[in-house]
Write a structure and sequence with these properties.
The protein is an all-alpha fold. It folds into two domains: about 10-170 and about 200-265, no CATH class; about 280-505, no CATH class. Helices cover about 80% and strands about 0% of the residues. The chain contains 22 helices and no strands. The chain has helices at about 5-20, 30-55, 60-85, 90-95, 100-150, 155-170, 175-195, 200-210, 215-225, 230-255, 255-265, 280-295, 295-320, 320-330, 335-340, 340-350, 365-370, 375-405, 410-435, 445-450, 455-475, 480-505. The longest helix has about 50 residues, at about 100-150. Residues about 20-30 and about 265-275 have low confidence and may be disordered.
Length: about 500
């Protein structure tokens, strides 16, 4: 029997975890503020695109937003399900309490649905209600809200099923990092292709939508909205309920069996003798930071996309001539890249910074760092070296490729590299200092400090303004003097780097 007074408390705990309110109740720039910002961004983006496409492309508009929302819910919920339901801490803390298995799992499943619903509302509320109102009037517009409420049920149910079947694979950090890396490459190629080969990509997307529309559940979903059909809408809602509650009931009845299958380690461990090696302090700290970074796949996914973009841009012109790119993209790709070369390398280098949560992600280990015979600057140096190591290779590749393609002289090439490195250092110093002032160690899930913070969004806004300065200098103030403008950009960013570094030297790890 479910005791609703207990459920209310557990639901509040789960919602606080998702919104990152566990230790930041009095902090303005909390995870709640970040979620509100993201919600508003997607909501206004869906309104503008839906109105721009209009009725002529309503199929593409609704299907595009629905597919994007489905993928986002599915991927985010797989991570959320692994951490919230199958995390070892959950068993150690909750299951010894006088609560039934169903009472513990139900709030977690409900929170998964509510977080998915929030994402669906941000992306799909306007297009669904708008097209439903045009098809069936005010009454069907109200009915379409039920369709919207049912939409996240299928991806949420599928995420539970996938976690049940492949939870052990998803918990392998290396496999998760590889998966996220390939997903990041796919996203980078998709966006580059969408903006550079629009005609080809629209044909591919059109073909994909035609295939998807053959699935019964998707056809009932789109037909219900565009035809104003209550019957088809009810079928879609019932089918969604069956998928979600079927997965939830199976999970509730088989939780412990699934948990132990996914979390038990092999009985026989390797018997290799441990060996210890003496290495330099900086190298040891760098290895420690790399291991910490690699242990959280969501940390990797949040910071690797810009690096992938830079590598693709650096390799692309080596294999595809600009003449071919011009034909594929229907615009002068060479002139575009030449005009915004400095903004591309500075922006991508800065957006790849990893330090926006590097102290907070230490969690309770932060107190251990305070007891080590190390200066605070030693710890900071290791974290900055990690961020710079990720971008140095792509910056060199990017700079040498376009130096060859655009016949840059030696000084211009060096300036291009220096600007990229300087902007990368600026972003890493800024992220580290800001994380120091907004330190959050009392987290339950790493998502709270890696993904659900306003910190990353705020720093990216500052980075955009910094890239705007480079545009002002190179494209408005000195458009015909590449060497002078790039020198000014480097001097400006280098001076800011020195100021930030001087401020960092005054910091102490003690709280």
């Amino acid at each position: 029997m479910i005791r609703f007074n207990k459920e209310k408390i557990l639901i509040k705990v789960e919602i606080d975890r998702v919104l990152n309110r566990n230790s930041n109740k009095n902090r303005l720039l909390s995870g709640l503020a970040a979620n509100i910002f993201i919600f508003g961004f997607f909501f206004f983006y869906s309104i503008s695109i839906t109105n721009k496409l209009g009725l002529e492309f309503q199929n593409y508009s609704l299907m595009g937003f629905s597919l994007f929302s489905f993928i986002m819910i599915l991927i985010s919920n797989i991570s959320l399900t692994n951490d919230a339901i199958f995390g070892p801490k959950e068993v150690n803390i909750l299951f010894p309490m006088p609560l039934s298995e169903l009472e513990i799992i139900l709030p977690k499943i409900l929170t998964i649905y509510l977080s998915s619903l929030a994402m669906s509302f941000a992306i799909l509320s306007y297009p669904i209600i708008y097209y439903a109102y045009l098809a069936g009037g005010f009454s069907f517009g109200l009915f379409s809200i039920l369709i919207l409420l049912a939409f996240p049920l299928i991806p949420s149910g599928l995420s539970i099923i996938l976690t049940i079947l492949f939870g052990k694979i998803f918990q392998n950090k290396m496999i998760r990092n590889i998966f996220l890396l390939f997903f990041g490459i796919f996203v980078a190629i998709f966006y580059l292709g969408l903006y550079t080969m629009e005609d080809i990509f629209l044909k591919v997307i059109k073909g994909l939508f035609e295939v998807l529309l053959k699935f019964p559940s998707i056809k009932f979903y789109t037909d219900a909205i565009f035809m104003g059909s209550y019957f088809r809408g009810l079928i879609f809602i019932i089918f969604s309920l069956i998928i979600f509650f079927g997965a939830a009931i199976f999970l509730a009845k088989n939780y412990f069996k699934i948990y132990y299958r996914n979390n038990l380690k092999a009985r026989h461990r390797g018997r290799d003798k441990d060996t210890f090696h003496i290495t330099s302090k900086n190298l040891a700290l760098f290895r420690k930071e790399f291991a910490l970074y690699n242990s959280y796949p969501i940390y990797v996914s949040n910071t690797i996309i810009s690096v992938i973009f830079m590598i693709i841009l650096g390799l692309g012109p080596l294999f595809i001539p600009f003449e071919t790119l011009n034909k594929l993209t229907n615009f002068n790709a060479k002139d575009f890249l030449s005009t915004y070369l400095i903004q591309l390398i500075c922006g991508l280098s800065a957006l790849s910074q990893t330090t926006y949560c590097c102290l907070s992600v230490e969690g309770k280990n932060y107190y251990l760092m305070q007891s080590l015979p190390l200066k605070a600057l030693d710890i900071f140096r290791g974290k900055i070296l990690l961020g710079m190591s990720l971008i140095t290779g792509p910056i060199l590749l990017f700079a040498f490729t376009f130096s060859l393609k655009f016949s840059l002289n030696f000084i211009e090439t060096i300036l291009l590299i220096c600007c990229g490195l300087s902007y990368g250092l600026f972003a890493n110093l800024l992220g580290l200092i800001y994380d120091f002032y907004t330190l959050d160690l009392d987290w339950i899930s790493p998502n709270e400090v890696i993904k659900q913070r306003f910190t990353m969004l705020l720093i990216q806004i500052i980075i955009i303004f910094m890239v705007g300065f480079s545009f002002l200098i190179s494209n408005i103030m000195l458009p015909n003097s590449r060497m002078i403008s790039w020198s000014l950009i480097f001097i400006l960013s280098f001076v800011i780097d020195l100021l930030l570094l001087n401020d960092l030297r005054t910091k102490d790890l003690r709280l």
